[in-house]
Amino acid sequence: MPQRRHAVTVRAVQQVFPTNSGAVVVDPVDLVHDDLRRSDGTRPWVLMNMISSADGATVVDGVSGGLGGDADRRLLGTLRGAADVILVGAGTVRAENYRSPRTPEDRVAVLRATSGRPPRPRLAVVSASLSLDPTAMMFSPVDPSDPPPLIYTATGAPVEGRHALTRMAEVVDAGTGNRVDVNLVVADLAKRGVGVVLAEGGPSLNHQLVDAGLVDELNLTISPLLAAGTARRILAGPVLRTPAGLKLDRVLTADGFLFCRYLLA
Ligand SMILES: NC(=O)c1ccc[n+]([C@@H]2O[C@H](COP(=O)([O-])OP(=O)(O)OC[C@H]3O[C@@H](n4cnc5c(N)ncnc54)[C@H](OP(=O)(O)O)[C@@H]3O)[C@@H](O)[C@H]2O)c1
Predict the structure, then answer these.
(1) Which distant-in-sequence residues (6+ apart) come within 8 Å of 184 by Cβ?
(2) Which of 37, 40, 159, 174 is 20 to 30 A from 216 in CA distance terms?
(3) Domain tally for the chain?
């Protein structure tokens, strides 16, 4: 899980758009819970969440933690509370030393239970190489009854890696050779009855999901920081075949961060 550092005193979260009469103080837990996330019924709703510096960098020193703050961390926890599955690329899992999703804070946990969700979202990782450390934190469940992580790979994945991971994960082929097809990943999640997928990056997986027209919502946190460097933007890949239009749905602010919710047009 991205460990976003820089704990600071969090002031109230204000909604700056849309409002009729200036900024209003809001509780993101209510907002996120009330957001409509209904896809067309053929696949889950896919919401992408990323943080970037004001100049578009997605990492500082190789991880996203240096961009974040307390309000951002709490919003991420709230979004995770709305998800059935957290989908992430193996590059992010390795860089950020992902662990299994935690139990969300009390109120989110209650809302989750009332909407019939299990206590925690399930982790799903995309990897061709299956080069994932079997002793990594992502393979330690919070509770022994939690389902193991899903690992989406392709038919050409190394046999040894497959063998090593089968004991601690559900390894699913979703592509041939060394290429996972994100359409097959999302179709498999749909078959499993997954309603909401939170895509947490990284930029190369984001690019594939957007390019395939599989993303419904983008939650973008803009950190009050200039970072420069060679870090990627939130999507990494060739120019999209069709640029994806965004409709600004909401802007919140706290501690100088902007939390923008867009719906894909
Ligand atoms: N700012 C933020 O909000 C944020 C969020 C997430 C990540 N990040 C940062 O982003 C960086 C990682 O991003 P990234 O774009 O390099 O990596 P990524 O998208 O997280 O992962 C790329 C890896 O995922 C697997 N993969 C992705 N698509 C695949 C496909 N179609 N077929 C087979 N395998 C596929 C491959 O794993 P294998 O190599 O195992 O085959 C590939 O090397 C990290 O530095 C992380 O800290 C930032």
Answers:
(1) 152, 174, 175
(2) 174
(3) 1
Which tens digit of pLDDT belongs to each residue from 81-137? 999 999 999 999 999 999 999 999 899 999 999 989 999 999 999 999 999 999 999
- pTM comes to 0.94
Q: What range does the domain containing 258 cover? A: 45-264
**Residue 7 belongs to a domain:** no
Q: pLDDT for 137-170, tens place per residue? A: 999 999 999 999 999 999 999 999 999 999 999 9
Question: For ligand 1, what atom is nearest to the CA of residue 63?
Answer: 47
Enter the tokens of residue 251: 């802007």
d(CA 91, CA 116): 32
How far is residue 240's CA from residue 32's CA, in Å, rounded to a whole number? 29
User: Is 95 near ligand 1, meaning CB less than 6 Å away?
Assistant: yes
> Is residue 136 domain-resident?
yes
Distance from Cα 193 to the centre of ligand 1, integer Å: 25
The residue whose two tokens read 């820089």 is 6
CATH of the domain at 162: 3.40.430.10
Q: Would you say the CB of residue 76 lies under 6 angstroms from ligand 1? A: no
